[in-house]
Specification:
CATH topology of the largest domain in chain C: D-Maltodextrin-Binding Protein, domain 2
Shape of chain C: globular
Number of strands of chain A: 0
Strand content of chain C: 5-15%
Number of domains of chain A: 1
Strand order of the largest sheet of chain C: 2-1-3-12-6
Helix content of chain A: 55-70%
Helix content of chain C: 40-55%
Chains: A mainly alpha, B mainly alpha, C alpha+beta
Largest sheet of chain C: 5 strands, mixed
CATH class of the largest domain in chain C: Alpha Beta
Shape of chain A: flat
CATH architecture of the largest domain in chain C: 3-Layer(aba) Sandwich
Strand content of chain A: under 5%
CATH architecture of chain A: Orthogonal Bundle
Distance between the termini of chain C: 84 Å
CATH class of chain A: Mainly Alpha
CATH topology of chain A: MetI-like fold
CATH superfamily of the largest domain in chain C: Periplasmic binding protein-like II
Largest sheet of chain A: none
Structural class of chain C: alpha+beta
Number of helices of chain C: 25
Order of helices and strands of chain A: HHHHHHHHHHHHHHHH
Oligomer: heterotrimer
CATH superfamily of chain A: MetI-like
Number of domains of chain C: 2
């Protein structure tokens, strides 16, 4: 089956004509039943606890519980934003997230396309496996590795620069370069793992399409452009929309393990800021407020990007 | 490497693909190899630092420290349980839920999709979830690690995959008299191997790496998962030195920070099992087209 | 098919309200937060809290069961023992080496038998303790007693912990109480909030005197010195020579990445200030914050010179503890920065790596500045206190029981040894320095040694676990003039609403410090720094600190009085 299937019209049903809602329900009763287990799980584990969102608008006291704690409305949000460091953290979060998106989103797609051009065999399988190894290295270790690599005295990168006659750069302590390091190191770490989904999509492409294209005289590049990439577009669009939901998560583990005094100005993100200042320690409502804010912004972003996708692709690539 | 019909530009492209991937592989493998060599180094050799291709003499103390915990066996079993059962459960329930949502003839489709997708953004948070789970009496029950296995994120991906499947499948099955459930189980599931393999891989890795839910929900230490033990070794006294209460020692404990060799051994122990699992999932990616499906 | 009259809209409304009702019914608040079943309360009136009762007596059935025992003709049915007090004890799994004790461990059994109560240890992973506790507290699961490392103010404000009058301590654990007060009244400060006590302090003598200078003696000899330098000038000279002779790459490195507030504390100390403490004025008229004093300016000027002369490793900015240790062990630096003395002796990682590679280490006092000042700061008199869950405020029986246990364990040398190390000879033995070491073959979980680690102990007991030469090896850490001049624990008396600006100010301070040291900002900008610091909250902190300082004598006196009148 091909992922570039076109939309087919409604399946014809005997006794055509407008059916009432209930008729449709009965016709689709098996489908609806199939949804019941999932709905139950979601109701129990996701919607059940959702009353916790209310904590963001209260002054939650352990002794009073959620229903007994006083309501304070938007106080925590106001408190958060009245702090210039918090606003700075927000700015950094957005900037870092968008930069990571701009460079980090296309990277796995490109890698998947490259992988696809390799002939099946040991090299392809081995290199695929190796490519996602960094994904499993925790940031605690990975950050130390990067710091060592970028060391102005002993790091490989600076040795290389010295070889080229360039003076060593203290990347990790430079506010400007640090952002580059954040983005580049995340790409290095995640590109292999991120490519898996695209590889799966490419594996679903009908080989007869390629065969037909070759017969028609298409070069590899043309085949990539006209077959592979269009096959990837739906999943890529979906991944992009979904990724927008986490726009305010710029990577706590990474930043926390890599940042230092000199780069706080550009590297401090919301999560590291809250952690470092202990603003959320046992302040359940404040922590809930920050979480709520991040979720709300994520939701808005997804809705916006989804709308754009709808308009641009005539509803095809949209989430709903 | 090249196909017979490749043009010159094609060959150049393929060549650069191989070259690029080779460089990538070296770059990806380097940190890993570095840590592996570190994990079998003696303490002195480890301190020297820098990149080494190999080390001599080989010292397995790092692994001994990581693996010496007597609780390791139980924890490994617990992790295995959640990886196998949890992944199986997640894959099945995700597919089961995604298929109806992909069908155009599902009534209230937008509402139902919204119900699921909404949970991707808003959640009550760790604490209300804990209180809820506690109210349900699921504290200390391993099922609590498995049951919340329906992630909206994966659901949407699988659903979209199913939406792209041709409608002829449905027609063909209905002509044969099959109901939707049989259609799903006998036709759709087998056809969705690549995407399910991906979801399975992601879920398995998540289960393998998870520690926080086990820590919060399990009060019996026999129900701990492997990652908790490993993290204990990794963060052993790193905490002391991260300025929380700068270097404050409790009681009469004067602890040593975890050796680099131990941290490296930890990494290897955590990662190698996954590397062994991936080739099984990879089969489904490379295979490509499945035989016998409906052609357009 | 029967089309029913219900429209789609009505269906949705019905389903929605049904779901809503279902949710509302389920989404009740957590069950009333009683962490422990109330059963043991029945035992309270019958068990008189007498901590001096000999252990054997508690083994016999409690007085209420006595009448049952006189019912002679039932040899097979022993009288049911009176319900024992059960205490939920939140304790840390400290490290991978110290696993949680088994529920049937020998040490636990010994404790339970001796004091006739049930101890239910709730093992919390130390590395995640903050989150685990936060979650459990919110649900109302508060242990009866628990260890907690983070600042206690949120606990107190949320009403999670119980207030404990000093009288209760005096009554239930008189020996430990006396020992604690003899050690220092200041030890109570960590558990103090607005004049009341909210936890039992654990004495921590090491926290007062942690630091020592560590020199590469072999390098010192090569530059013509037989013992470590005593003054800053000598120190700079030694480092310069060593670097010139390429014995080391740099003189010193520090932990700017994970502990910037502790950078170069020895150099600051040489100029009579500590960058993160409140320094008391000579005439006792008030306090000033270390980093904005002239002494700090002088210290930073010196450090800037050192940096220019390549005596400070430029990568100190990205170096945390591990990197600093690695750098030291690789021999790239000549002297340690803020090293703790126990890491500089055999068995400590700073010692072993150098000596194993053929080097020599010498300990030294902190360097003296131009006016003869020197010294290191410490962290305070006590470890984070053990907290009491709020339910214990009304449960005298439990309070008495746990305190009875602690009083004995904290003052009896043999028992304290046993609960930490098992039996001497079979489970553990003392090493060459007299420090008890648990044998490698011993099954710690089965024995239960992790129970004792966190138990309170008085100084006498504590000393029995230290090295024989403890006094000698800590002399470098104890000495100093600057360390007499700062006010410990002043923060305890300060208003939290003012001190919450602390982390931001800390950041500002660290950034400026690093900039001064590296020379990114010239020392002529010192005035700008002080101005910015004071404007952004430094002045507010200073005013509050001075208010607290003046009130502190009064507050301390109040504590003293409360203790005396207990």
């Amino acid at each position: 089956m091909s992922s570039v299937a076109l939309r087919v019209g409604r399946v014809a049903v005997p006794g055509a004509g407008r059916r009432s809602f209930w008729q449709r329900v009965v016709a689709a009763r098996v489908l609806l039943l199939m949804l019941v287990p999932g709905l139950l799980l979601i109701l129990i584990f996701n919607y059940g606890p959702m009353y916790g969102l209310l904590m963001a608008f209260q002054d939650f006291q352990v002794t009073k519980g959620i229903w007994g704690s006083p309501w304070v409305g938007l106080k925590h949000f106001q408190e958060f934003f009245s702090n210039p460091s918090a606003v700075n953290a927000l700015r950094n979060t957005l900037l870092i997230s968008f930069l990571k998106l701009a460079f980090g989103f296309p990277a796995p797609i490109l890698l998947a396309i490259l992988f696809n051009e390799l002939r099946n065999g040991i090299f392809k399988r081995a290199s695929q496996t190796i490519s996602y190894m960094p994904h499993f290295v925790s940031w605690i270790v990975f950050a130390a590795l990067i710091t060592a690599m970028l060391s102005p005295s002993t790091g490989v990168i600076n040795q290389f620069l010295k070889f080229l006659g360039i003076r060593p750069i203290y990347f990790m302590a430079d506010p400007g370069w640090f952002r580059v390091v954040l983005i580049a190191s995340e790409i290095w770490k995640e590109i292999g793992w991120g490519a898996i989904i695209y590889l799966a999509a490419l594996s679903g492409v009908d080989p007869t399409l390629h065969e037909a294209a070759v017969v028609d005289g298409a070069t590899r590049i043309q085949r990539i452009l006209y077959i592979n990439i269009p096959s990837l577009l739906p999943i890529a669009a979906l991944m992009l929309i979904l990724r927008m939901g986490g726009i305010l998560n710029a990577g706590f583990d990474q930043v926390f393990n890599m940042y230092n005094v000199q780069v706080y100005q550009t590297a401090d993100i919301i999560d590291t800021y809250v952690y470092r200042t202990g603003l959320a320690d046992l302040k359940y409502s404040f922590a809930a407020a920050v979480g709520f804010f991040k979720s709300a912004v994520g939701l808005v972003m997804v809705v916006v990007v989804n709308e754009i996708a709808r308009r641009m692709s005539d509803r095809y690539y949209a989430l709903w | 490497m090249f196909d017979r019909y490749d043009t010159l530009t094609d060959r150049l492209l393929v060549f650069f693909c191989y070259l690029g991937i080779l460089i990538l592989v070296i770059a990806m493998f380097y940190p890993f190899w570095d840590q592996f060599v570190m994990s079998i180094s003696t303490r002195q050799a480890a301190l020297v630092g820098g990149f080494r291709l190999w080390t001599w003499p080989i010292n397995l103390d790092g692994y001994r420290v990581v693996l010496r915990s007597k609780e390791l066996g139980t924890a490994a079993m617990n992790t295995l349980f959640r990886v196998v059962v949890g992944t199986g459960f997640s894959v099945v329930i995700t597919s089961l839920t995604a298929y109806p949502l992909s069908r155009r003839d599902l009534p209230l489709k937008r509402v139902l999709t919204g119900v699921f997708v909404f949970t991707m953004f808003f959640s009550g948070g760790l604490i209300p979830t804990y209180m809820w789970v506690r109210g349900l009496g699921l504290i200390n029950n391993p099922l609590v690690l498995i049951l919340p296995g329906l992630a909206a994120y994966y659901l949407v991906i699988v659903r979209n995959f199913y939406s792209g499947m041709p409608q002829e499948l449905q027609e063909a099955a209905q002509i044969d008299g099959a109901n939707d459930f049989t259609l799903w189980w006998k036709v759709v599931m087998p056809l969705s191997k690549p995407i399910l393999a991906t979801i399975a891989l992601w879920t398995a890795v998540n289960h393998w790496n998870a520690y926080l839910d086990a820590l919060i929900y399990m009060t019996d230490k026999n129900k701990y998962v492997l990652q908790i033990l490993l993290r204990r070794v990794l963060l052993d006294t790193d905490l002391l030195n991260m300025g929380m209460q700068p270097g404050q020692e409790m009681g009469s404990i004067i602890s040593r920070p975890t050796e680099e060799t131990v941290k490296a051994a930890l990494l290897i122990v955590t990662t190698v099992p996954i590397l062994l699992v991936y080739p099984f999932a990879q089969r489904y990616f490379i295979q490509g087209l499945l035989q016998g499906s409906v052609k357009g | 098919m029967n089309p029913t009259k219900l429209s789609r809209r009505r269906f949705l409304i019905a389903a929605g309200s049904g779901a809503g009702v279902l949710l509302a019914a389920c989404a009740q608040p957590a069950p009333a937060p009683t962490a422990v079943p109330a059963a043991p309360k029945a035992a309270a009136p019958t068990k008189a809290p007498e901590p001096t009762k000999a252990p054997e007596a508690t083994k016999a059935p409690a007085p209420t069961a006595a009448p049952a025992a006189t019912k002679a003709p039932e040899p097979t049915k022993a009288p049911p023992p009176a319900p024992r007090v059960k205490i939920n004890y939140g304790i840390f799994v400290m490290s991978a080496q110290d696993p949680a004790a088994n529920p049937d461990s020998a040490i636990l059994k010994a404790i339970q038998d001796k004091f006739n109560f049930d101890l239910n240890f709730i093992w919390i992973e130390r590395f995640q303790a903050k989150d685990i506790y936060a979650t459990r507290f919110a649900a109302g699961d508060i242990p009866d007693v628990f260890h907690y490392e983070q600042p206690g103010t949120p606990l107190i404000e949320q009403g999670i912990v119980a207030e404990v009058p000093y009288a209760t301590y005096k009554k239930n654990m008189p020996k430990y109480f006396k020992n604690l007060n003899d050690y220092s009244i200041m030890a109570w400060l960590g558990a103090n909030y607005k004049g009341k006590n909210y936890g039992l302090p654990l004495m921590g003598p090491n926290n007062l005197i942690p630091f020592t200078e560590g020199w590469r003696l072999d390098s010192l000899e090569k530059v013509g010195m037989t013992k470590p330098p005593e003054t800053l000038v000598e120190m700079e000279d030694a480092m310069t020579k060593a670097v010139a002779q390429k014995l080391h790459q740099y003189g010193v490195i520090t932990r700017a990445k994970d502990a910037p507030q502790m950078m170069f504390a020895n150099v600051f100390g040489a100029y009579g200030v500590f960058p993160l403490h409140w320094m008391e004025r000579a005439d006792k008229s008030g306090v000033d914050y270390g980093i904005v004093m002239d002494g700090a300016k002088d210290a930073l000027t010196t450090l800037q010179t050192w940096y220019k002369k390549n005596l400070i490793h430029p990568e100190f900015i990205t170096s945390g503890w591990q990197q600093c240790v690695n750098t030291w062990c690789q021999g790239k630096t000549m002297v340690t920065d803020v090293a703790t003395w126990y890491r500089l002796y055999k068995g400590g990682e700073l010692f072993d790596c150098v000596v194993d590679a053929g080097g020599k280490i010498a300990m030294a006092y902190a360097p003296k500045g131009p006016k003869g000042d020197f010294g290191y700061h410490g962290w305070g008199y006590a470890n984070p206190p053990v907290r009491f869950g709020k339910q214990l405020a009304t449960d005298a029986a439990k309070m008495a029981k746990i305190m009875e246990f602690w009083d004995f364990a904290g003052t009896d040398k043999d028992f304290a040894y046993y609960i930490r190390y098992g039996k001497e000879g079979t489970d553990s033995e003392r090493d060459a320095y007299g420090v008890p070491q648990i044998k490698k073959e011993t099954d710690r979980a089965k024995l239960g040694t992790s129970i004792g680690i966190l138990t309170p102990s008085n100084i006498e007991v504590w000393k029995t676990f230290q090295r024989k030469d403890y006094e000698d090896i800590t002399k470098y850490a104890k000495a100093g003039t600057t360390n007499q001049k700062y006010v410990r624990d002043l923060g305890v008396f300060m208003n939290p609403d003012v001190t919450k600006i602390g982390p931001e100010l800390q950041l500002l301070q660290s950034k400026w410090e690093v900039d001064f040291i590296t020379g990114a900002k010239g020392m002529d900008k010192w005035g700008d720094f002080v101005k910015e610091y004071m404007e952004k909250g430094g002045q507010a902190m200073k005013d509050e600190a001075n208010r607290a300082y003046k009130a502190m004598t009064g507050d301390l006196d109040a504590i003293k009085k409360a203790i005396e009148s207990a």
